[in-house]
Write a structure and sequence with these properties.
It holds the Pfam family Aldedh. This is A16A1 dehydrogenase. GO terms for molecular function: oxidoreductase activity, acting on the aldehyde or oxo group of donors, NAD or NADP as acceptor. InterPro entries: Ald_DH/histidinol_DH (IPR016161), Ald_DH_C (IPR016163), Ald_DH_N (IPR016162), Aldehyde_DH_dom (IPR015590). By secondary structure, the chain is an alpha/beta fold. It folds into two domains: 123 residues, Aldehyde Dehydrogenase, Chain A, domain 2 (3-Layer(aba) Sandwich), CATH 3.40.309; 126 residues, Aldehyde Dehydrogenase, Chain A, domain 1 (3-Layer(aba) Sandwich), CATH 3.40.605.10. It is built from nine helices and nine strands. Helix 8 links the parallel strand 8 and strand 9. The longest helix is centred in the middle third of the chain and has 19 residues.
């Protein structure tokens, strides 16, 4: 309720006394506003608390604290602020203040939180999730996608990006990780120009049966490149009116995606090009039968 400044904690929520005690033991300063005696459920009201002088590894920063508790951690610039915010495990929202709107938008874009307020705190009530949860869509009036069915025993991948098992694949993953930030930060129009350049560089003529092109029912690779170049230009953010200001809704790429090459042309049309157009870096593993098409696509 935005009209409530300090409300009671839920009955099942423990008071953060242990975290405050540990912060004092680590040398932090704890400031609390005394509350007057309150009848009834007054014991569930916790006084507004400020903690300063803590280390970035302190428990009060690593664990979520339910209640009016604020931890003050000075930083020396936007880059250090982004690094500190990226290390917080449970932060769903952030707020930053800046006089330069360019610096503010650039810093907000680098923060990992799903909701960032500029020069304000309470324009939107943050959801419990972040950039990776569908619940964040409720803030903009859109219902979340249908939740996938629950799996009794979740499948574990046989190959992970941290340990792909193949030296060449590990090198490809490292290269993709290095290219992902720069490619993902490009505007959609810039990515569209790259895709159109790739379409212009493709040789003419249909593919060979050895490359699996007989399965291509969605059009040529050149046509797919041009279509996704057009979609990349339209996949930018949107500005939405809201009480007290405006909300800028942006879309972030997932990062590095691994793709299995089943049919070369179908893969390029259905998986590879959308991932690239939306700012992701892609690692494609092609079998020996698709090596020719993979080399042409690489060029």
């Amino acid at each position: 309720d935005p009209r409530t400044e300090v409300g009671p904690l839920p009955p099942e929520t423990p008071l953060p006394e242990e975290l405050l005690w540990e912060a004092r033991e680590e040398g932090a300063q704890v400031f609390q506003v005394p509350l007057p005696p309150l009848p009834g459920r007054g014991q569930r009201f916790y006084p507004p608390t400020l903690i300063s002088g803590v280390a970035p590894t302190s428990r009060c920063l690593r664990e979520p604290v339910l209640g009016p508790v604020l931890v003050l951690l000075p930083v020396r610039g936007p880059s250090e602020a982004v690094a500190v915010a990226s290390a917080l495990p449970h932060a769903a929202a952030a707020a930053l203040w800046a006089q330069d709107i360019t610096v503010a938008l650039d810093t907000a874009d680098r923060l990992p939180q799903g909701l960032v307020s500029l020069n304000s705190l309470d324009l939107l009530d943050p959801s419990t999730g972040g950039t990776d949860l569908d619940e964040a869509l409720r803030e903009f009036g859109c219902p979340p996608w249908e939740q996938p069915p629950e799996v009794e025993e979740p499948l574990s991948p046989s190959v992970t990006l941290d340990d792909p098992g193949d030296p060449e694949l590990a090198q490809a993953v490292a290269t993709a990780r290095g290219a992902a930030p720069g490619w993902g930060r490009l505007p959609g129009a810039s990515r569209a120009r790259v895709l159109r350049g790739a379409a212009a560089a493709l040789p003419g003529g249909p593919g060979t049966p050895e490359d699996g092109d007989r399965s291509d029912t969605g059009g040529s690779l050149r046509g797919a490149l041009l279509r996704w170049a057009e979609r990349a230009e339209r996949a930018g953010g949107t500005v939405q009116e809201m009480p007290g200001g405006r909300a800028l809704l942006t879309r972030r790429p997932l990062g590095v995606l691994g793709v299995a090459w089943v049919w070369p042309r179908l893969l390029a049309l259905e998986l590879l090009l959308p991932a690239l157009a939306l700012g992701n870096a892609v690692v494609v593993v092609a079998p020996s039968g698709g090596a020719g098409a993979a080399q042409r696509l690489r060029k």
